[in-house]
Structures
1.
Amino acid sequence: MENEILLQIAQEYQAPLYVYQASKIENQYHRLLKAFSKIERLQINYAVKALSNISILKLFRKLDAGLDTVSIQEVFLGLKAGFSPDKIIYTPNGVSLKEIEEVAQLGVQINIDNLSILEQFGSKYPTTPVCIRINPHILAGGNANISVGHIDSKFGISIHQLPHLLRIVENTNMYINGLHMHTGSDILDIEVFLYASEILFETAKHFKSLEFIDFGSGFKVPYRKGDIETDIEELGKKLTKRFHAFEKEYGKSLTLMFEPGKFLVSESGHFLAKVNVVKQTTSTVFAGIDTGFNHLIRPMLYGSQHTILNLSNPKGKERFYSVVGYICETDTFASNRKIAEINEGDILCFKNAGAYGFSMASNYNSRYKPAEVLWLNEKAHLIRQHENFDDLIRNQIEISLDQ
């Protein structure tokens, strides 16, 4: 988006503020479709956890995407956004059998990732279609917190537990209609992803009634100039060829699924914040802004780097700043970063903030959550209001202490 438009939006709706560009989301979705255009049955399920605003979900419904959900609440959001149950897959971790049963009763495709729940569910509901999440023990790359396919991960059923898995399926006579894997975010090497895919293909030979294979996602997006990203086009060519070969070997056509989140929405997002104070110490120049890790925690939690632009002075002389928030802890967005000269009152823009920004926001320090705006058809649409004090105390219950 153009800096002038972002600055106008900040002035109209006030920072701190998330702004999402609909056309970028659409382009990323179509880019993925094009990369796998030779797959006859392709289903892209948007990972709701990345950005769960209901207007964003409706945008994906308009694109004919499905949804990947990890909680019953995300399932409810998908249904409220107008998705039919058969367009939603539910892949939880560590939840109760009760929640899985409730989701299954809604007609949503369930995906089970541990032997205990698989046996319990299969014993009670042998005819209900179930997808199984496999842990291929592959380290995809990226931060350890978002790499979920390795041997020490809590996610998925270990590929080494396949004999036990097959015994449960045989004993319960349950209906397995899908296989799934997710190696984690920030895939740096598509060959590693393809290697994990071979493990999934080999596993699939043990199940005769599969309807789909879900390869997860984790496609890396560039965060700064010159940064590497997953080569989606090359992956499309290589995986398509291998998938077609497997279909012939398997003896039937299957649906190929992906569940991208960050890949679809990250680059669409811009987080806008106002500079409260420029503070020079003996060694550092701080730009203190009207937000903190209560609104954007990724730099502190994952060490992620977001390009920061000064929208108010884009052509100013570059100086070195440490950009910090107002939380009563160390919440540093950038250290010793070159940014166009900053003055108090300027609006800063954090790029690539569409994924895991607002969805991980909190009310820490009793601060309000920010607003969200969708830039659609050359117009700004408010899709979430700024919180206020009533929102902060809405569910609190004051009791009398004089009893």
2.
Amino acid sequence: MLSQLPNCITSPSWWQLIKWIADPIGFQQKYSQKYGDIFSMRLSGIGSCVILSHPQAIQEIFSQDSKFDIGRGNKLAEPLIGRNSLMLIDGARHRRERKLLMPPFHGERLQAYGQQICLITEQIASQWQIDQPFVARSAMQKVSLEVILQIVFGLSEGERYQLILPLLTSWLDMTDSPLRSSMLFFRFLQQDWGKWTPWGQMKSRQNYIYQLLLAEIEEKRTKEDQRQGDVLSLMMAARDENGQAMTDDELKDELLTILFAGHETTATTLAWAFYQIHRNPDVLLKLQQELDSLGENPNPMEIVQLPYLTAVCLETLRMYPVLPGLFPRITKSSINIAGYQFPPDTTLMPSIYLLHYREDLYPNPQQFNPERFLGRQYSPWEFIPFGGGSRRCLGYALALLEMKLVLATVLSNYQLALVENKPLKLQRRGFTLAPEGGVRMMIKKRITQIVRT
């Protein structure tokens, strides 16, 4: 099979897997310099995969998504998010679930979440002490986790909230380095021999989270007469064309998927945004001037429309993809992509990083330059931080809303500084990529006295 694929990396498959886990960006850079827009890797225990980075090839893939199995390509994530997750299903079932899940994440619902995101941010930022270093990624993780708990799960107080908050944090932190992430890629490490093994601890915490989520679903069901606006309540109320609701197992797995897809990624991207904003004084000044132009206590929906704030968020998403590649697509039958004829069961993976660093699309790609998004509209196959085709991230609008409102709330009320103004490396954190060390910052002064309700 491998001999039929283009530009095959020749090093042993176990070595390729180690490099993919330890440094997926450096791995892709090396072989794109050697082979160009398309090359094939072979990961021990996982299989062969073709990496593509030309926008035309990515467009061809997105326009033919029905010819691929994509859920099957995400099998590695099943132990974490469950077999009923939207990420792991294909065909008619995928279309049904996506349709049921779509409404809470778009349109008028987003406006209802705006004020809540600002209040959560204010509450957490108010705990920071002047001249006391804090880790931006950890702080943003607290914000993002509260957004998930309050807006998605509908939890903001009570015993279940108190239990689930530290449990989710400790569960997610179990894969916070390349070494600890290895258990997601090596099947032999996925042995549950009780709580004294890493995998046993992970499964134990996951089962406890499952129990708490099922208890929350059951409690909401008994309060059906009370209309609630959280995402879980809306998911429970949704019905397909046959009048069928999502099952408890489907709800539970989708909640875990939202937690993984929405929590880790948003916290990481916000940490990178604070890093670049404070490395570039001109960017900070433009942002502050734009925010000041709205006057005191602006409406969250006014903030969301600000063009330079939007450009800063998009440029951060361009420079720092949270995943090394998009969801793998497995061909159902023979297909032609980028002039190559691929046989059935070939795995194709568009590279977010290699696409976002193309000189022909993004001149000086190593430079943080939000203006590039003010002067040009990029197509859905030139800019893909949230994926594309039938698998574009369901929560992308909520993620952008959260990014903009968190940045605006903090920058309007606090003057921050980097503890060390130095280049930071990307580090694997589970399936995602995060800044090594988490971006250490401190408050220099409070700009205004935040009024809390």
3.
Amino acid sequence: MALHTQLDVYKTGYDLLGRVTTLVENMERTFKRLIGEEIVRESAKLLILVYRANVAEDKVPHLTHLMERVKLVELLLRLALDMGKISPRQYWGVTRMTESISKQTTAWKKHSAKRPLHGGQGRHD
């Protein structure tokens, strides 16, 4: 099993966290506190979920939760765009990253769903 920090989905998530942190720094104070900080927090949670999925025997629940969090980050970014807090160029830059995370997570989830769990029956030596 690879270290979670070596996974492409983790690296993309880390880059996303850096990018949204920079975007939030430039937001007006009220929006930054209400929505911007939530964008950063949720982006950081993506990295924790990658770690959890990587070490879990049953990865599917963690990957499902990861997909939900990615959608929440996308929603918050869309709100920031619609309210004029980020530019369309900034929005498209970060949504390319969230799309990449979604695609990688979907592929990982499909692969994990096909693998049998190693517990409960038979010998495992």
